[in-house]
Amino acid sequence: MAIRLLDTLLKLQLLIIAGTLLFRGVSYSLECYACDSAEDPECATRPGQQLEVEECSGATDLCVTSITAGLTRRGCLGRLYPNGYCAAPCDSCNTSLCNRHVFPTDRLRCYQCSGSTCIDVANRPELLLPCPVYNEDDRCYTNILHLSNTMRGCEHTNLPDTCPHVCLKCNYNGCNSELTVTESRCLQCTHMRLSPNPDCLREQALINDDETVQCALTNETVTQCVNKVMLGHREQCYTHLNTQTEVLQRGCSTTMGFFPTGELTQCYGDYCNAQCQDIACGTCNSTSNPNCRTGINLSTEKCAAGTVACYACEQVVFLFHSISNLCLNMYIPPDTFLRRGCADADFIPATDQGETCQLCRSSDNCNRYSVRSCYRCNSQEQDDDDCAEMNLPSAMTISNCTDPMELCVSTVISRLNLIYTVRGCASQVPECSANDPYCVKCNGSLCNNIPTQWAMEKIEQSNIHLLDSPKQQKQRWAALTLLKYLWPDP
Ligand SMILES: *[C@@H]1O[C@H](CO)[C@@H](O)[C@H](O)[C@H]1NC(C)=O
Ligand SMILES: *[C@@H]1O[C@H](CO)[C@@H](O)[C@H](O)[C@H]1NC(C)=O
Ligand SMILES: *[C@@H]1O[C@H](CO)[C@@H](O)[C@H](O)[C@H]1NC(C)=O
Ligand SMILES: *[C@@H]1O[C@H](CO)[C@@H](O)[C@H](O)[C@H]1NC(C)=O
Ligand SMILES: *[C@@H]1O[C@H](CO)[C@@H](O)[C@H](O)[C@H]1NC(C)=O
Ligand SMILES: *[C@@H]1O[C@H](CO)[C@@H](O)[C@H](O)[C@H]1NC(C)=O
Questions:
Q1: Are 379 and 402 in contact (CB under 8 A)?
Q2: Ligand 3, atom 6: nearest CA belongs to which residue?
Q3: Does an H or E element contain 68, and which?
Q4: What is the pLDDT of residue 454?
Q5: pLDDT for the residue numbered 78
Q6: Residue ID of nearest Cα to ligand 6 atom 11
Q7: Domains and CATH numbers, the chain
Q8: What Pfam family does this protein match (any one) (predicted)?
Q9: Residue ID of nearest Cα to ligand 3 atom 3
């Protein structure tokens, strides 16, 4: 018997030639695939690929595929079983190269692989193969070795010693396909007093793309970490507050440090450690508490859960004097009302009543600082041509003063042939000194919005016929007074 190794193409050609010879009625000899899975597992799993072919000696021979003790053998019946008896399971057929199929047809198919590429076999159909060793009651197994190594195969072919300790077994084709290492994500950040990270404490987040805002951290502003988890294990996200040092940490439990004290909360699920840290705010108002303005020794209040920020709001309160008061050109400093507290769901800034608010969320009691802000402009600068008239204060630049008690100022500066208005926090406008006759100071946020009087005069001259009320006449009188100052009578 001659065994020849032929490549597939040659085999095909042979088939065609054999077919042609048969058609012409010329005798031919039967050819069969010949192999033993003990030497080449592909004999069992991928027949018809690169297997050897043998020519049978007898004209009445058959090609067979048989299973003995789990091993698969293919070849001519006459060679494999000289007595002509092939015990079941055995398949025989009588045309050339007909023994090329997986046998038995219900031979179990399992994912067979090992290493890191074996962790996720969802899109790896090439790893799903018939089991090399046949057993009627075979099962597929998955052996999770560690985070970067998984082994899959057939129970009767190569079950590792470590099974069944960390092995999953199942009994239908392709059943050992479970993802063995999964990833879960957590927010990861640290906030500490010397290196503040307000986004790690609390944040206003849009929920589900609709308009609802709630206090929660998001992975858009906070970095994240990944817990790698072996099948059958679960890892958590954590939030830890060291109540002594006030260091707040969030992260993945797989990389969590040891926290003997403090407040530790843990949770399951992607980004589950996104809860806002509670905030406490200084709470007071300038009417009932003289310390409210300085921010010293404020009483603090724990805000309602989900509060994002603390507020400090200031409102200019004008003292209304009777119109008969002839001292209208005398500056009456407006008083201010200041309040501080939790910017919770009940907080509404009275913007329509001229209240200006500043919000902060960087730490407990962060609203104890300055709330003083003033209009900042210079009518000589190109973008500030409304600085004198203040027709549109809402469009004006606002400057935060360095001190909560700082005054807001406005003055008219006359230099060479230029006359222009400058406004700002007192420290920003050094021209506005005690001997500056045009310096106007006021005690409150954004109170430096009174139009420069020479501008008023210009308006009044063009609208002189409209000026009939006593109040407007008095305003005009006041304006002319200032004008005299600016342009003394020759
Ligand atoms: C081959 O087997 C089929 C049935 O499996 C039979 O009908 C046929 O006669 C056989 N041919 C030869 C040449 O023995
Ligand atoms: C943030 O989380 C959402 C799900 O909550 C996810 O779809 C998105 O890809 C994450 N963004 C980043 C940058 O990881
Ligand atoms: C100021 O605070 C006191 C005491 O907390 C309160 O009774 C009062 O209503 C507050 N005033 C205003 C205008 O909110
Ligand atoms: C701080 O306030 C408390 C009461 O709220 C008061 O007893 C204490 O004297 C105050 N301290 C200072 C320095 O004002
Ligand atoms: C002034 O302070 C507020 C609140 O702290 C801040 O939002 C704003 O950006 C500051 N403005 C400037 C010009 O620094
Ligand atoms: C500004 O107003 C506050 C409270 O209304 C007062 O305590 C302070 O002395 C005033 N500052 C000036 C410079 O008038």
A1: no
A2: 288
A3: strand 63-68
A4: 62
A5: 92
A6: 443
A7: 30-93 (no CATH), 109-170 (no CATH), 185-267 (no CATH), 280-318+332-360 (2.10.60.10), 373-457 (2.10.60)
A8: DUF753
A9: 288
Q: Which residues lie with the beta carbon below 6 Å from any ligand 4 atom?
A: 297, 299
Cα(293) to centroid(ligand 6), Å? 9
- The percentage of residues in the chain with a pLDDT greater than 90, rounded to a whole number, is 39
pLDDT computed for residue 49 by the predictor:
66
CA distance 311 to 202: 15
Ligand 5 pocket check for 400: Cβ under 6 Å: yes
Contacts of 426 (CB under 8 A, 6+ apart): 401, 406, 407, 408, 409, 432, 441
* Ligand 2, atom 14, residue with closest C-alpha: 219
Q: Look at residue 5 and tell me whether its pLDDT is greater than 60.
A: no
Residue 279: CB atoms within 10 Å: 30
**What distance in Å separates the CA atoms of residue 340 and residue 310, rounded to the nearest whole number?**
7
More confident residue, 28 or 162: 162
Residue nearest to ligand 5 atom 8, measured at CA: 400
| Whole-angstrom distance, CA of residue 152 vs CA of residue 244 | 50
Strand partners, 146: 149
Protein residues whose CB sits closer than 6 Å to any atom of ligand 6: 333, 335-336, 407, 443
Residue in the block written with tokens 């609709």: 210
Provide the pLDDT for residue 208: 65
The number of the ligand nearest the C-alpha atom of 285 reads 3
Among all bound ligands, the one having the nearest atom to the CA of 406 is 6
Distance 299 CA to ligand 4 centre (A): 9
Distance 219 CA to ligand 2 centre (A): 6
Tokens (6 digits) for 396: 């004006």
Alpha carbon of 471 to ligand 4 centroid (Å): 47
Following CA atoms 8, 12, 14, 17 in sequence, which dihedral angle do they give, to the nearest 10 degrees? -170
The lowest-confidence range among 110-124, 218-232, 255-269, 400-414 is 400-414
Tokens of 360: 């902060």
- In sequence order, which residues have a C-beta less than 8 Å from that of residue 331 and are 6 or more positions away? 440, 441, 442
Give the pTM.
Answer: 0.60
Do 309 and 391 contact (CB within 8 A), yes or no? Answer: no
**Which protein residue's CA is at the shortest distance from atom 4 of ligand 3?**
288
